């Protein structure tokens, strides 16, 4: 829009007028074309009426960022499984995050983990948002202290067991914990910048909370971001579907959305593996 010769209002009016003309003469708008499809967890969009900026995986400057790959989200024993389990199972989120870790190990692509931890002093906060209140009430991601790992192993705050070989390999960067949803309260952006990263392949939990908040903050900080749509999942309750809410925003904000299979292929192609 900044480079458009049309003022914003005129530009929007031009789009509306053009769409109306196409309809009058029988030319289908792009989103109405026979080969159109909205983005879903397992399939990227086709001719959905929105621009396709694209995202090129590079061997220099591209990294995978995974939010909250922890038991309280991803294990059936975790405290949130009752609301996230359906979405995780349908998307094969656990397996797909695992595939991203595996291809990163195979190719040497950098990986950054942005975890969620609450220490005892965090429970003294004077005000909280809706799901902050819930997370604190159910003891989600609780650890006794930032300086003490007693009781951490196998707890809800610990990594999913099958991810430990990838996270604890001496190469993966584990940032300080984010405290609400986005990386504004941790050192992820610093770690990415110091590593020369400007492009992020984003996955992890939970889709409309930490994952979406990371996407928004990273884009605001000048990173190019794509989201792996089946390597995340969201809470589903009687009245709300967190995953569906996030999918719309992923598509409208990120440079690209795609599934794990295609993302893994793109990484291997970039590294010629």
From TrEMBL:
Keywords from the named record: Hydrolase, Signal
Position of the signal peptide: 1-31
Pfam families noted in UniProt: Isochorismatase
GO molecular function: hydrolase activity
InterPro entries assigned to the protein according to its UniProt record, in alphabetical order: Isochorismatase-like_dom, Isochorismatase-like_hydrls, Isochorismatase-like_sf
Start and end residues of each Isochorismatase-like domain: 62-251
PANTHER family in UniProt: ISOCHORISMATASE-LIKE DOMAIN-CONTAINING PROTEIN, PEROXYUREIDOACRYLATE/UREIDOACRYLATE AMIDOHYDROLASE-RELATED
Protein name in UniProt: Cysteine hydrolase
Record organism: Hyphomonas atlantica
């Amino acid at each position: 829009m900044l480079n458009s010769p049309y003022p914003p209002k005129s530009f929007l009016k031009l789009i509306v007028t053009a769409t109306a003309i196409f309809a009058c003469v029988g030319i289908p708008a792009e989103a109405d074309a026979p080969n159109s499809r909205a983005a879903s967890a397992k399939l990227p969009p086709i001719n959905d009426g929105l621009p396709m900026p694209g995202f090129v995986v590079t061997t220099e400057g591209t990294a995978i960022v995974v939010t909250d790959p922890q038991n309280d989200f991803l294990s059936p024993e975790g405290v949130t499984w009752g609301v996230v389990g359906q979405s995780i199972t349908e998307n094969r989120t656990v397996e797909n995050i695992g595939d991203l870790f595996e291809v990163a190990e195979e190719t040497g692509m950098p990986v950054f983990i942005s975890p969620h931890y609450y220490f005892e002093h965090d429970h003294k906060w004077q005000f909280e948002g809706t799901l902050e209140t819930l997370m604190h009430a159910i003891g989600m991601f609780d650890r006794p202290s930032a300086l003490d790992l007693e009781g951490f192993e196998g707890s809800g705050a610990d990594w999913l067991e099958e991810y430990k070989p990838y996270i604890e390999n001496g190469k993966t960067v584990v940032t300080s914990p984010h405290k609400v949803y986005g990386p504004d309260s941790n050192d992820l952006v610093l770690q990415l910048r110091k590593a020369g990263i400007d492009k992020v392949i984003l996955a992890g939990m939970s889709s409309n909370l930490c994952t979406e908040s990371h996407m928004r903050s990273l884009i605001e900080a000048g990173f190019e971001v794509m989201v792996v749509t089946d390597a995340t999942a969201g809470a589903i309750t009687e009245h709300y579907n967190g995953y569906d809410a996030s999918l719309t925003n992923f598509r409208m904000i990120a440079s690209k959305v795609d599934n794990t299979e295609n993302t893994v292929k793109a990484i291997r192609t970039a590294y010629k593996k």
